[in-house]
Write a structure and sequence with these properties.
The protein is mainly α. 79% of the residues lie in helices and 2% in strands. The two termini are 21 Å apart.
Length: 261
C-alpha cells in the first residue's frame, strides 16, 4: 500500500496549471483506500501481486475518485473528507471536467492488452454505476419508490458492483490460464465482493441516516448480507493460497459492517 500510495498520488497530476491545481486539491483529501486493498487481497488469494494487479488497483481508486467529484456536483456538496469540494472551490464545470479527466486517465492505465479482460469488466461496472445514479435521481426515485428490492438494485449498481469488480480484477490479474477452475474462482470472489459492497453501502446509509426509509431497510438487511459475505468468503477456502489473506478479508468485512465513520 505504501508503493500504491506513492504511485497513485504521483498520477494525480495534470499537464496544465489549472488541472494540476485541481488534482493537487483532490490528492490532499485521502480516503480509506478500501478498493485498492481489495484488489491486492483478492490477488493474494490465488497468486502473487504483479504489474497487472498494481495497474488494476490504480484504476479503481482513480475511478472512485472521479465518481466522488461527480457525486459532489450532483449532490451540491460543499465538503468532502474534511475539505472543500472541487465544485465548491472552482464550480460545477471544472468539477465535471476534472472527473472526466480522471476517468480518461484511469482507462489509459488499463490500456495494456494483457489487462483487456479486467478493463471490459470495469467498464461494464461503470455503465451500471451511471444507471444506478439515474435510477436514484429525480422523478425516477419517486416513481420507483424506496422498496426493499429497489433499494438493493440501486446500491448494487452505485456501490456494490465496483467493489465486486475490485475483487474480480485482483483475481483476474493473477489467474492467467483459462480453465473451469479459474472461472469458479472468479465467480466466487465476485460473489464475495458483491455482498461486501452491499454491506458497505448499507452501513453508510445507516451512518448517514439521510433517508429514514432506506435506513430502516439497511438496518434490517445488514446482518443478512454480512452473513452472505462471510459465507461466500469461506467458500473460497479450498482454492486459497494463503489462509492469512482470508483472515484479513474476514476482518475487513466485519469492519465494513460495524464501522462508525
Amino acid at each position: 500500500m505504501k508503493e500504491f500510495e506513492r504511485v497513485f498520488l504521483d498520477s494525480l497530476k495534470g499537464t496544465t496549471v489549472p488541472m494540476d491545481t485541481v488534482l493537487g486539491h483532490v490528492a490532499a483529501a485521502k480516503g480509506k483506500r478500501l478498493r485498492p486493498r481489495l484488489v491486492f487481497l483478492s490477488a493474494l488469494l490465488f497468486g502473487d501481486i504483479n504489474d497487472s494487479t498494481r495497474r488494476t488497483a490504480q484504476f479503481v481508486e482513480m475511478l472512485h475518485t472521479a465518481t466522488l467529484i461527480h457525486d459532489d456536483v450532483i449532490d451540491e456538496s460543499d465538503i468532502r473528507r474534511g475539505q472543500a469540494t472541487v465544485n465548491a472551490v472552482w464550480g460545477n464545470t471544472t468539477a465535471v471536467l476534472s472527473g472526466d479527466y480522471l476517468l480518461t486517465k484511469a482507462m489509459k492505465i488499463l490500456s495494456n492488452p494483457v489487462d483487456l479482460e479486467i478493463l471490459q469488466d470495469m467498464l461494464s461496472t461503470v455503465m451500471m454505476m451511471v444507471e444506478g445514479e439515474v435510477l436514484q435521481s429525480g422523478k425516477w426515485s419517486v416513481e420507483s419508490g424506496n422498496t426493499e428490492s429497489k433499494y438493493l438494485e440501486i446500491i448494487e449498481r452505485k456501490t456494490a458492483r465496483l467493489i465486486r469488480s475490485c475483487c474480480v480484477g485482483g483475481a483476474m490479474s493473477v489467474l492467467s490460464e483459462k480453465t473451469e477452475d479459474r472461472r469458479q474462482k472468479i465467480e466466487g470472489v465476485g460473489e464475495f465482493g458483491l455482498n461486501l459492497g452491499l454491506v458497505f453501502q448499507m452501513r453508510d446509509d445507516i451512518l448517514d441516516d439521510d433517508d429514514h426509509e432506506n435506513t430502516v431497510i439497511a438496518e434490517r438487511l445488514l446482518p443478512q448480507y454480512l452473513d452472505k459475505a462471510l459465507k461466500s468468503l469461506d467458500a473460497l477456502a479450498p482454492w486459497v493460497k494463503d489462509r492469512d489473506v482470508l483472515t484479513r478479508l474476514r476482518e475487513l468485512t466485519v469492519f465494513c459492517a460495524e464501522r462508525n465513520h
